[in-house]
Give the backbone structure.
Amino acid sequence: MWKIANLEIESHVVLGPMAGVTSEAYRKFLKPFGVGLSFTEMVSDCGLFYGNENTLAYLPTQNTDRPVGIQLFGSKIENMQKAIEIIQKANIPYDFIDLNFGCPVPKVTKTGAGSSWLKKPQKIGEYVSQIVALSSKPVTAKIRLGWNDELVNFTQVVEQLEKAGVSAITIHARTTEQMYTGKADWNALAGLKMQMKIPLIISGDIFRLDDAIKALEVTKADAVMVARGAMGKPRLVEQIDKYLRTGVRLPDATLFEQSEYLKKYAQLLIEEKGERQAMMILRGIAPRFFNGYPGMKGLKSILSTNLVTKADLDTILSRIN
């Protein structure tokens, strides 16, 4: 058990936000495997107050995956304040606001949002303190090590965020310039937790149980975030959660179990998005359920190109049964 402000969290496994992936259906799918905390897809503050329908669709509508945080990004305080006011008046189920200062994608950073904030730590503090004052729920933040190897300033950013009143901080152990290349540098964060008064969540390169164990061992973080590493590997969440609770190592999922997991996720996605849109999304995600299993190259190729209906998925997966 750990806490973000007064929010009690059972599991130390956190599901990270991923654009185009972590919709309510995906979060609902992974929750039973041992997710303690999850986030919406990244939500634009401007998209909210302009009433963009696609943006509004990112907001939670059910209680099935709580505790859940709404992750917001933006560059101007007045826009962020308007977005939070809209959320607070909308009577939607959420538990905290998460501020994205970690997205490295150029189309986000060029607007002054995402990890471009890491270049101005003093202004981060001023910005966040106003958001904390306005929000009726706890505020957390996600950052990176820094902008590039010449500007690794996470300690300064963390200090500013703590002073501003955030209730937890997630750190992806790469710089913005690295994007998702190279290796996450967990060692850079060794000793940081001892200087913090709030929870630390470690993120980056959690693809196996041993990655989670090592990341937590090195950083002494309160929780570990899984994102890309859990796509198509729901058992990974269960393995990490089980080990942290009991020290027991669960085996990897069988090929048949992976097929059944995919069917379950597909059904939830269809209920959320409709059949056709769900199949288009699954073209990018379904093949990941069979990564690392021998003899699956042909099946993965078909999944990535031939999915149009649920019947197509069932026919393809029947080859496994």
